[in-house]
Design goal:
Elements lengths: L2 H14 L3 E15 L14 E14 L2 E14 L2 E17 L3 H9 L1 H20 L12 H17 L1
Antiparallel strand pairs: 1-4, 2-3, 3-4
Length: 160
């Protein structure tokens, strides 16, 4: 092998050392839909008030294997009465290897929920339609920005 070929081969080996993420499975861990004031709520007039809560939980299942659960809760109220409550726990099992600890943390909190969110979004939409309400379409979220903001707040709180 020439020197150039050796340099390319060494560069390829080093590039292969870059971290890898693989999606093993995506599934609905739990979902619920409640219409506590049915059927009277369908007669209510007024502008709906929507509250959206998003959370996530990460659990290590094995070495370099993690379950990430993204919880999306939507509460809709009309005239101070709950019209519906929809909640989906969208989960995935991810293999995450070749990263240092901070990078693994970032991948689990950005890449993984970004991949789960479209499934949760679809599930929420289907639940609301099947519950007799207009489809509720969650807006896209930037999990990278949310993670950066969270890390900034932690750093600020740690310095205070």
């Amino acid at each position: 092998m020439s020197e150039n070929e050796n340099a390319v081969a060494n560069g390829a080996e080093q590039a292969g050392a870059v971290g890898q993420v693989a999606i093993q499975k995506i599934y609905v861990r739990d979902s619920s839909f409640e219409v506590p004031n049915a059927p009277m709520i369908f007669q209510e007039q007024g502008q709906p008030n929507i509250q959206l809560n998003i959370g996530q939980k990460v659990q290590q299942l094995a070495e370099a294997v993690f379950e990430v659960v993204l919880t999306v809760t939507v509460t809709c109220k009309i005239a101070d009465k709950t019209a519906y409550l929809a909640e989906v726990q969208q989960a995935g099992i991810f293999s995450v290897s070749g990263f240092d600890q901070p990078s693994t943390h970032a991948v689990l909190n950005t890449f993984c929920p970004s991949n789960l969110y479209p499934f949760a979004r679809q599930a929420i939409c289907e639940l609301t339609v099947n519950g007799g309400f207009p489809p509720f379409l969650l807006q896209p979220l930037n999990f990278d920005q949310m993670y950066a903001d969270q890390m900034r707040r932690r750093e600020t709180a740690g310095n205070a």
